[in-house]
Design brief:
This protein has 206 residues and is an alpha/beta fold. It has a single domain, classed as Hexapeptide repeat proteins (UDP N-Acetylglucosamine Acyltransferase, domain 1, 3 Solenoid). The strands form 3 sheets. Strands 4-7-10-12-13 form a 5-stranded mixed sheet, with no helix packed on it. A hairpin with a 4-residue loop joins strand 12 and strand 13. Bound molecules: coenzyme A (COA). Coenzyme A binds next to helix 1, strand 12 and strand 13.
Length: 206
């Protein structure tokens, strides 16, 4: 099955309820999930005002280690919805002001940052699959269940359910059938081999 088939086969993943199983660390050598775990744990320590400062420092060190391993730049204070998948985190850059919704998938070499014609940073909806090498620049809004093609340069808003590809990105498909299935979101998810959608608690996994 090709990655295109996998993206096309992505069905009924919620755009609103995070599936934390997608982030669960199953083995030690899993840079994408380990990096996310460091971000989640750091943020948890910060929001709960944890008394042990050293614990927060530990997660800062973990974050640095996995950032170096992955060659990724995902700041500790990033606004990342739950259920994010980074199957190959190398070269992923996320600007601190960007917002990413639940259950998104970010492939390798993706940049989500400032610098496009629209001022500000991108706001990405829920269950958005972003192909390898894509750049999403400036204050653009990407709707729920949208797909961004490999190497696309997105400078304009992308409506929900649409597929955008090319440089600059244009809409190549305007609607994805999964949009109408969001209410059945507890059934399945196969985008890039992501996990099945059942666990929708609001707690990070580890
Ligand atoms: C964008 C994408 C999701 C489109 O999938 P799709 O819905 O099956 O669309 P199609 O393949 O039918 O393509 C529709 C049109 O968009 C064009 N297109 C598709 N992907 C494109 C891309 N990345 N860049 C430019 N044009 C693209 C096709 O040539 C086609 O054009 P046409 O209508 O003029 O023939 C898919 O091509 C893609 O880029 N997936 C990313 C996969 C990836 O990054 N995997 C990483 C794995 S490690």
């Amino acid at each position: 099955m090709t990655p295109k088939d996998l993206m096309r086969g992505s069905r009924a993943v919620s755009a609103t309820l995070p599936d934390w199983r997608r982030e669960r660390c199953g083995r030690f050598w899993d840079p994408g999930r380990r990096l996310l775990r460091a971000v989640r744990s750091y943020q948890r320590c910060k929001t709960r005002n944890f008394p042990f400062k050293s614990l927060r420092k530990y997660w800062v060190l973990e974050h640095r280690f996995w950032s170096i391993v992955a060659g990724a730049d995902i700041p500790l204070d990033s606004d990342l919805g739950g259920g994010l998948q980074l199957p190959h985190p190398n070269g992923v850059v996320i600007f601190p002001g960007a917002v990413i919704g639940p259950n998104c998938l970010i492939s390798q070499q993706v940049t989500i940052g400032v610098g496009g014609p629209k001022p500000g940073a991108p706001v990405i909806g829920g269950h958005v699959d972003i192909g390898a090498g894509a750049k999403i620049l400036g204050g653009v809004k990407i709707g729920d269940h949208a797909r961004i093609g490999a190497n696309a340069v997105v400078l304009e808003d992308v409506p929900g359910g649409a597929t955008a590809a090319g440089v600059p990105a244009r809409i190549v498909r305007s609607r994805n059938p999964i949009l109408s299935q969001d209410k059945n979101a507890e059934t399945e998810s196969d985008a890039y081999g992501s996990s099945v959608m059942h666990d929708t608690t609001d707690q990070p996994p580890c």
